[in-house]
Amino acid sequence: MQPSKRLLVLGLFMLLSACGIEPDERVYGTWVEPLTGETIEFREDGTLGWFGHEGTFAFKKSTSWATGSDTGQVAVDVDGQSFRISYYSDHFDEDPNSWSMGFRSFTSFPYEATINSKTTGGFLVNREGTTSGAYNPPSFERIDNGLTRFHPHAEQIRTYDGVIVGFIDGKLWRLNSQTATWEVVREDLDSDLLKLDPEVIHNSDEYSLDGGTTWKPLPEIGDSDGSSILVSMGTSLFATVYVYVYSEGEARDGQIWTIDLADRTPTWILQTESTLNEYGIYDLTPIPAANTLVRSWWEGDDDGMQLELSTDSGITFVALESPCSWSFYAHANGIYCKGEDGSLQWYDLTTQAWSTITTESGDMWVESNRPRDELYLVRDSTFMKIATDGSETILTSLGDDSGRYPRIFFLEDSIIMSHLTLWMKSL
């Protein structure tokens, strides 16, 4: 098809999609945004109330030509902005009192609306009368000053020398404790494989030993076809690298390298090398307080997860029999995981024994700022800990409307909860 014909077809398509459609009357009414408690009102006369502003709206055919999944759209003009909100009639059939609003431009691309000076591509609202209003968890302090998103999303948060640093909405931020305001540390970071580890922030290209203030390039690891996610123990990084051994066909060797970033001239050192199985690369998990590395890999459905321990920085490993069905996590003196029967299994390096900790279905495990001796989890709307003897302690309530799985960051003596925005509470 010639370019001019393509443009003509696209223009006709966009013209047709701009036409109105039969309204879904369930759009009408007043909706409540759960973070602020402010309202959005779609009136039958085509006028709109939007976070204290007045505007207009009209039902339109969907411009989501790439997906075609929404039933239609509401074209909104309010507060100097024009955009569309997708709606789904089948979703209203399932729950007529909630609406996951997604914003789009007239040409179907995602649209960033501005609300109270912050941007958003959409959010969930509830019909008025079906919600308790603005979310306000008990005894928590709201900490989103300085952030640019209406509903910020925190991916990682950790403390460095008492300063809270977070990777939030694709940028590295630092919380100024004097002003309770987030300040951008870096927004040009390659977020691929970025990790905020206890003593080092790093990705595949650079690293920082001072909480992100200064950065240095990470030396390359010789000749390799790729590497797993880097892990750290103290100021040392460990990497599993695979290389093809072409003289032996398509076999691959798995190498473990380490580098101490605190050295005057950090240099990668090869620790060990072994042949990989057909399932791919090894993973490494550090237990810093015990100076131990756990190497793991999948051995197929029959043999499952295989684990090995190293106490000499990855030079030698000893096999560890385990009941782990899949992923595992480090605690202060060992690891814990979910067993084949769904139970929580706890391994202690000192006793060299596994034990079972009783939990409930639906518990969400929480990793702390550093591995500790207890299990921390979210159960229903509470944050709690379970000791190895099974005793349970509720640390704080998260509020009745926190959602089933709020994101929790457990720092030294406080927690930060990511739900609608960021909240902090001292423990």
Defining traits:
globular; mainly beta; single chain; 427 residues; 46% strand
Indicate the radius of gyration in whole angstroms.
Answer: 26 Å
Strand order, main sheet: write it out. Answer: 1-2-3-4-5-6-7-10
What is the makeup of the main sheet? 8 strands, antiparallel, barrel
Q: Report low-confidence residues grouped into runs of 5 or more.
A: 3-18
Mean pLDDT rating: 88
Find the count of extended strands (DSSP E, 2+ residues): 38
Can you count the helices?
3
Strand fraction equals over 45%
Coarse shape? globular
Helix content: under 10%
Produce the secondary structure layout.
Elements lengths: L2 H15 L11 E4 L6 E4 L4 E4 L2 E8 L11 E7 L2 E7 L1 H6 L3 E7 L8 E3 L2 E3 L1 E6 L13 E2 L11 E7 L2 E6 L2 E6 L4 E6 L8 E2 L4 E2 L3 E3 L7 E2 L13 E3 L2 E9 L7 E9 L8 E7 L7 E5 L4 E7 L1 H4 L1 E6 L7 E3 L3 E8 L2 E6 L4 E5 L4 E5 L6 E2 L9 E5 L2 E5 L5 E6 L9 E4 L3 E6 L1 E6 L1
Antiparallel strand pairs: 1-2, 1-10, 2-3, 3-4, 4-5, 5-6, 6-7, 7-10, 8-9, 11-38, 12-13, 13-14, 14-15, 16-17, 17-18, 18-19, 20-21, 21-22, 22-23, 24-25, 25-26, 26-27, 28-29, 29-30, 30-31, 32-33, 33-34, 34-35, 36-37, 37-38
